[in-house]
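tool_call: predict_structure(chain=1)
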Amino acid sequence: MHFDVEFNSGAFYPAAGTVELAELAEERGFGAVWKGESNSTDPLVLLSAMAARTRTIKLGTAVYHVFGRSPITLGIQAATINDLSDGRLLLGLGVANRNIAGWHEGTFDRPLRRVREYVEIVRAVATGERVEYHGELYQPGPFKLSWRPRHPRVPVYLAGLGEQMTRLAGRLAEGIIVNMANPARVRHIVSNVRQGAVEAGRDPAQLEFIVKVRCCVNPDREVARRRLKQVLTFYNLADYYRDMIAQMGFAEDSARIREQYQSGGFKAAMAAVTDRLLDGLPLVGATSADEVQERVAPYLEAGATRLILPYVPATEDTIGETKAFLGQWRL
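tool_result:
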């Protein structure tokens, strides 16, 4: 299995600083560096800069959304960075939500069909072969890259939590990317993905199960935990994640946070985040990197093959603190 990192969670990471962090992560033995897409810095722009300054570490999107660009465009981008990095791209894709679709004047509908067609087009474009695709949602004109990519195979991973999307990942992708799921939920998702693979005649042993566990390290454990409670507050206010948090057995805890938000705002909501909720979800407040490594073991036992550690800084020195965190590791 692999330990990976992400510099994207709970704080703004300056673009140039993340490139330095990627170099350090490679030096310390991390398997991949990941970047997600939201209203922050762009994943493929940053990963391209990281590719130019590193040699072995994998470069992942966790995740890029299908509404931000056409599948032809992403196929071109994927082929380009995969050649630039000598085949190190791990392309994580997701269908996002209505809010993100709205940013790009898209319509959030038929997510399973949409992501399937999108992935098929992206893969086809990245091979360098001529593409003619006639889908239900996408009908791009005939297209062919002007060059023959040196690395025409782009591994694709789907972001998924629900029954249908996780099974689709098993049928279609090289694996799944899982966010905000505790070990019991991860075990359930792994089972779904494997079942989807078997149904499609694929070998589930060849798939990757990529799981995010956010962490914060501080000599005072309560400082680290308080910072993670702030992040957890946002997730309980988000429609889809609050539903999943409820399904994992924390419906009352989550409802209380939303009630406090309605009556008293974000600070009141954060104050309502219980220790029980923090300890039951994939967030680790610790005093050292060794403690983090010990406490993520249940996720590996649940089936994770890659563990992404999005670091959440406790101080305003985002880059300096994260460098100190990475410096504690030797993998």
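agent: The two ends are 11 Å apart (CA to CA). Proceeding to next step.
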